[in-house]
Design goal:
With about 150 residues, this protein is mainly α. About 55% of the residues lie in helices and about 10% in strands. It has a 3-stranded antiparallel β-sheet. Helix 1 (about 15-30) crosses helix 6 (about 105-120). The longest helix has 20 residues, at about 15-30. It is globular.
């Protein structure tokens, strides 16, 4: 835990964040493969467990995707009987996304995968390092280029 790992491209933040994400993505994919889900489907289920009936555009935001890219994902998840879509009764331009019984029934397994990855990470770094990392992530998620004057 005290070793300083080597970073690519002289420590280039974006490249190393991408590499870390890709590594974790591969681990997640292996963990969720037995559930028959893609990583993006797994993300969407987790978001719907937090807020079932959310709008499709809000779900896109939650899974870090552009709203226009959600139709294919929602189609696949409907075909798997994980969710269903319904036109919003208050705004007919909006679509709400709801879990099906099958989608809700997967919750323990979906949460188990999240907990398993958390345990794998906790075995690799200290609690203090995790808190620092989470702080740095929150800062990075809010970095914006100033508007030209």
């Amino acid at each position: 835990m005290n070793e300083t790992p080597s970073l690519r491209f002289d420590g280039c933040m974006a490249t190393n964040l991408e590499q870390a994400y890709r590594q974790l993505e591969q681990v997640y994919e292996r963990l969720i493969a037995p559930l028959g889900l893609s990583l993006l489907e797994w993300y969407a289920l987790r978001a719907l467990y937090d807020e079932d009936g959310t709008s499709a555009s809000q779900l896109a935001h939650e899974v870090c995707r552009h709203p226009s890219s959600m139709t294919a994902l929602l189609d696949r998840m409907e075909e798997k009987d994980l969710l269903h879509r319904q036109v919003d009764t208050h705004d007919r331009r909006s679509v709400r996304v709801f879990l099906t019984e099958r989608g809700r029934a997967l919750r323990p397994q979906v949460e188990h995968v999240a907990n398993r990855l958390s345990r794998l990470i906790e075995e690799s770094i200290t609690q203090e390092q995790m808190e620092t990392f989470q702080y740095v992530l929150s800062v990075l998620q809010n970095v914006h280029l100033p508007e030209p004057s």
